[in-house]
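dumping this here before i forget
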Amino acid sequence: MTDAFTHVVPAMREFCQYTGGREVSKQVVSEMLNSKKTIMLVPGGQGEIMLHTRENLDAKIISLCAKHKGFVRMALKHNAELVPTFNFGELQAIENIYLPKMQNLGRALFGFPLPFLPVGIWGFLPIPRKVNMRWVIGKPIQPRTQIPGKPTEDEVAEMHRQYFLALRDLIDSHKEAADYGEFKVEYKGIVI
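structure:
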């Protein structure tokens, strides 16, 4: 599932939908979960685009945006498991130019951090650098609600906390094997 922005831009919209991509919206997520489809969301999304900077990479920091709870609320509402995953190497493969004032303004006006210019090889092409990647998948987190389909804010907060604790543990338990032993996880938007 991708941001609504990618479903507005001609050609990008067609490519996303042709390859099975769908817009991340409450309606589409509900339709997919009601039909018992498995979906993949990236909860940090646009917020993490702004966190992935050369400075963070040089400082050996993996920054994750953890303020979003809508994906947890939807999982609880539809009795769907959350499975934490992480891709080591993605941050080195491609990065966005970093112009925070302009991108924050673009995000406020258009809902997306503009200018968005991914750079990879040679520091200016939007082609990913050749790096080793390791994708790790954690154990599913079971939804727990007192009233099925009607999660309370406390239940949402608890599953949200469980998800990000599980994600941190997943990263920590695999970072040595992925050659990320010196990296530390830093959350933005939550205290765990």
